[in-house]
Design a protein that fits this description.
nicotinate phosphoribosyltransferase, seven-stranded antiparallel β-sheet, 41% helix, 18% strand
Length: 450
Amino acid sequence: MDHRENLCLLTDLYQLTMAQSYFESGKFEPATFSLFIRSYPPHRGYFLAAGLEDVLNFLRDFAFDQESVDYLRSTQIFADAFLDFLSGLRFTGEVWAIPEGRLFFKDEPILEITAPIVEAQIVETFVINQIHLQTLIATKAARCVHAAQGRAVVDFSLRRTHGIDAGMKVARSSFLAGFSATSNVLAGRRHGIPIVGTMAHSFVSSFEREIDAFLSFARSFPDNSTLLIDTYDPLAGARKAVEVACELARSGHHLRAVRIDSGDLVRLGREVRRILDDAGLQEVKIIGSGGLDEYDLAAFSEANAPYDSYGVGTQMGVSGDAPWSDIAYKLVEYNGRPVLKLSTGKVSLPGRKQIFRFVDSQGRLQKDTITLREENLAGAEPLLKKVMEEGKAIGPYPTLKEIRERCAQGLSCLDEKIKAIRDPQTYPVELSPRLRGLQEEIEQQVVQSQ
């Protein structure tokens, strides 16, 4: 996707048909919509906020250009008066949001948008689309980093992400969650993420002899070569890597690393490490890759496998074990009147809200309390920040480096049992008495009025 393209039509048709009905009914009062995730995917105990910058840029630039209006007219679905209205429509509302890189938990509002109802309704699809993907990926990536236990993790996912836009967002989201680099060169340029790469099996097999492939690559990159040693026999490949390292050393250069991409990575890692060490090549690193995810990395850490870093691709880039979450964008207030939804398993919390986070004397996260926006809980941090007013962002965006540091700091304060890769404990999230009381009051009113 061209990131400069006008995206006003990136919405579901029913957003526009509802918007015309609002317009024709004279419903222009302010509405507040709340975005939240109803439940945890398997083995998740937390979420990591990501995607807000894209949402704010979209809202800032929101406008139906003439080409978009002409297309809608050609569908013969919409009234001319409504299309004329769309021609001048801009986003004029406000946004309260959890900053990118912060932890949040199920049922907590990730962001709340307040704007005239047509504006707030039409943008729903884009808001969900951006926050959903990037939050899923950032959360998956954070789990990989945690499972690696201090070993570097690199994004190798681009070839199998679901399109160009997803590939770019995966690189950014994984980096803010703690990945050290990406293989995605365009993401490196656009976001300032370090880029790394090795070689493919095709490079090795294009030579008649594996050793010739290694020597050729090493001559091109005498101080930055990582040799892929498992095209044929990983242990034989490791011995050839020793030969290459010795030749490089004779000319004052050094082999950086070898990579193992298949097989029993724990056993192979140990045997390759022994081959390298026996040759006096303790400084040569070993990289593991090949369909890895946080479950593999946790097993390698437990086995103390001798890897220095990991390339993690497909499973992270598509959040393989949890490719979707039950994310929802629900109306919680219209024209000053709190509203909610009572559908089975999909109850929403009414009114504009805030989240307060309590920590102990060491800064460790204790619990969160969801409150009404106007409440204030002493001794706790309010998480939702006002980031847009009258359609304009408030203050400069944080840098990706600042978001990454914020993420690392927050994760360091979260209990290990909640970060567990399997069967995590549940972080405590409460409703304030005032919010609970309002919910019960509105539920009664809804039941009586139907």
